[in-house]
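can u do me a favor
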């Protein structure tokens, strides 16, 4: 028996004298099972008022929360091969893509936008977990590379919001190639003297956690987020040992040095703003202290002449 559909909903309909009560007034907390009104969830940024569990957040809601005054410009996703391997399992890969695009109204599993966070210029690249589990294929790699290039062009910080099941198997080795591609883009950010900050959300796993999600100058995580490479069951069967309580959760990783800080959702924009302003100032001061690139050869020539 479903308590909500068989008992609560008929009672509500009887009280209001109408059969037009929407079916989606409630959301069940996946952690404690509490029934939460959607309006309450919107006010709490989808954080359960009973247990504090952070429910998954839509990528557009995430952008609205992060950027100052919810003001930002979305970037058009670069083009990418649609089905490079002509892959098919129980369903054609192209059909899966069409279904995901129809469901999310988006072209890829990552969305990029630019604006200001805490007054500092920023480019945000955010995974959309509702699009094929936020899996990383060539399209996602292209979006991230474009976001990094835009950050370098505009002298902005780059923020990754990770929420992914890992590499997209339907693209085979091509999806795995996005791991080194994104690592190179992050290195280019560092060479440009610009900060790269990672926000880990639930879940961040697989090839994404093995590459771009673990290379931030600062790594922030939401409470309770699942973060790891392989699943807990696979690890336990491999090492034949029972894993400790809370393993692969944000707090466990923070205690063991893999995450810098765990931050409540309503405090994340302010935290990212402070980090951006601090790191941008630091990098600018370091860059200003360096000699001009053309000065080095001249200095070497003077030393050789003196010898």
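np, heres the sequence
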């Amino acid at each position: 028996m479903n308590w909500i559909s068989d008992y609560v909903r008929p009672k509500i309909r009887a009280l209001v004298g109408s059969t037009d009560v929407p079916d989606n007034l409630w959301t069940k907390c996946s952690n404690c099972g509490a029934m939460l009104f959607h309006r309450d969830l919107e006010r709490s940024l989808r954080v359960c008022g009973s247990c504090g569990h952070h429910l998954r957040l839509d990528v557009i809601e995430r952008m609205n929360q992060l950027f100052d005054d919810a003001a930002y410009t979305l970037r058009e996703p670069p083009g990418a091969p649609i089905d490079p391997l002509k892959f098919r399992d129980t369903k054609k890969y192209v059909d899966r893509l069409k279904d995901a695009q129809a469901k999310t109204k988006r072209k890829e599993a990552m969305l990029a936008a630019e604006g200001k966070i805490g007054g500092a210029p920023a480019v945000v690249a955010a995974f959309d977990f509702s699009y094929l589990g936020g899996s990383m294929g060539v399209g996602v790699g292209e979006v991230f590379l474009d976001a990094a290039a835009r950050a370098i062009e505009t002298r902005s910080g780059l923020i990754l919001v990770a929420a992914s099941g890992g590499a997209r198997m339907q693209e085979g080795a091509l999806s795995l190639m996005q791991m080194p591609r994104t690592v190179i883009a992050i290195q280019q950010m560092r060479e440009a003297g610009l900060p790269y900050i990672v926000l880990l959300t639930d879940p961040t796993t697989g090839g994404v956690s093995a590459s771009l999600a673990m290379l931030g100058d600062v790594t922030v995580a939401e409470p309770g987020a699942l973060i790891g490479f392989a699943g807990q069951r696979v690890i336990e069967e491999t090492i034949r040992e029972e894993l400790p309580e809370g393993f692969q959760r944000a707090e466990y990783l923070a205690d063991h040095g893999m995450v810098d800080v765990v931050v409540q959702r309503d405090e994340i924009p302010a935290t990212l703003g402070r980090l951006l302003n601090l790191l941008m100032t630091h990098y600018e001061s370091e860059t200003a202290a360096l000699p001009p690139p053309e000065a080095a050869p001249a200095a070497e020539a003077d030393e050789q002449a003196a010898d």
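The chain has two domains: 14-55, 57-291. hope that helps!!
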